[in-house]
Automatic annotation (TrEMBL):
InterPro entries: Macro_dom, Macro_dom-like
Signal peptide: none
Name this protein carries in UniProt: O-acetyl-ADP-ribose deacetylase
Pfam families: Macro
Domain named Macro: residues: 1-170
Protein species of origin: uncultured Thermoleophilia bacterium
Phylogenetic placement of the source organism: Bacteria, Bacillati, Actinomycetota, Thermoleophilia, environmental samples
PANTHER family associated with the record: GANGLIOSIDE INDUCED DIFFERENTIATION ASSOCIATED PROTEIN 2-RELATED, MACRO DOMAIN-CONTAINING PROTEIN
């Protein structure tokens, strides 16, 4: 069973095999995590992204991690929050499932997720946390070669929120 870790920090500094990027469907970069990963990883990442023909919301595609410590960046496209009635929950779960499937396909044993869709895309964090945790845990159970799943939150507030969601999902 994969270890599940929650930390606060900058995901571009994570020493894991694969870092998940909160991308958009063009895969041609952006702000937030996307901007940070491309800035820190360098132009090789974008060069490979250009060959992929974009990525559908809920799907995930791997590229080199360029200058990052990680070996791969797994670009996933989270749903834009439009009120909760357009399948956003299922699409967010799909991002985590597909990212872990792709990690297993490329041979990544450890993977770090940001809080997908909770920034520019406006997905409420308190709703996203249990979906992210639950879908990542289920997918990791189906892919035993992935033995570490780490969520890297960008603030202590977000870390506390994710910790609360984990405790509620896993009462002592
Ligand atoms: N490390 C970890 N987490 C980060 C970092 C970082 N360096 N930078 C931002 N975050 C956090 C944000 O605080 C937020 O909680 O990542 C979460 C996701 O925020 P966004 O990066 O805005 O991603 P998202 O909401 O999925 O929106 C994706 O934004 O940057 C564009 O190209 C991207 O169009 C796409 C959209």
């Amino acid at each position: 069973m994969a270890r599940l870790e929650l930390v606060a920090g900058d995901i571009t500094r994570e020493a894991v095999d694969a870092i998940v990027n909160a991308a958009n469907e063009s895969l041609l970069g952006g702000g937030g995590v996307d901007g940070a990963i491309h800035r820190a990883g360098g132009p090789e990442i974008l060069a490979e992204c250009r060959t992929l023909g974009g990525c559908a919301t809920g799907d995930a595609k791997a590229t080199t991690a360029g200058r990052l410590e990680a070996r791969w960046v797994i670009h996933t496209v989270g749903p834009v929050w439009v009120g909760g009635g357009a399948g956003e929950d299922d699409l967010l779960a799909s991002c985590h499932r597909r990212s872990i499937e792709v990690a297993a396909e490329v041979g990544a044993r450890s993977i770090a997720f940001p809080a997908i869709s909770t920034g520019v895309y406006g997905f409420p964090k308190e709703r996203a946390a249990p979906i992210a945790l639950g879908s990542a845990r289920e997918a990791a159970a189906d892919h035993p070669t992935v033995d570490l799943v780490r969520f890297v939150l960008f603030s202590d507030t977000d870390l506390r929120l994710w910790r609360g969601a984990l405790e509620r999902s896993d009462p002592p």
